[in-house]
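quick one: copper (II) ion bound model?
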Amino acid sequence: MKNCLFAVVVAVSAATAVADGVSGVVKFKGTQPAERALPLDPACGASFKKVNPGAKPTTRFFVVGKDGGFGDVLVQIKGLSGGPAPSGKHVLDQKGCEYIPYVSACRAGQAISVLNSDPVLHNVHPQPAVSGNKEYNKAQLPHGPALDFQYDQPEEFLKFKCDVHPWMFSYISVMDHGYFAVTDENGKFSIAGVPDGTYELLARHRKAGETSQKVTVKGGKADVSLTLELK
Ligand SMILES: [Cu+2]
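yep, here:
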């Protein structure tokens, strides 16, 4: 009976490993600029060390994986509206005196819940650039309760900052449709639920610009590779 159960589990995980939806990779081309060291104060230095043992605190402008995969790229299907509903709140944490994730995306109207996992005071200061999206500046005690925000107008790379720690930034893209993803640290992405058809797939990075490619979805799937060149 034990063996039988084991076989079932293996079969399920093999099935889920097959890529579904529009998936693929964004590659980085060019010379990766050096990141800058972050001037952490002692309290933040200690927290950073605890969260990232052995790592040096630096800016995170260009996340490039070993195989050239480009992280923190906003990828989206153009020309579609609606799409899969957001599942729960979009969570942004403060850990080691950094915002985690650094770059992410959510749906317009979706609650953005900001946590403070640090033993230090932060203040959460979203600075939207689009009219109708409100600026806030809220202090958050060490390990304090979550603060919720909501943005109804689409805005790419809406900036969150902390005024206590001038190196702390996060960028959340607020999307008016559900067909988007942000690439992981190896440049990989997956967009679920795209109807069959031919679309423009747009990839945009905060500092490396954008590129787009035609993609044809058949049987609910498409595999695509894009390259963003830093000039
Ligand atoms: Cu802070």
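The radius of gyration is 19 Å.
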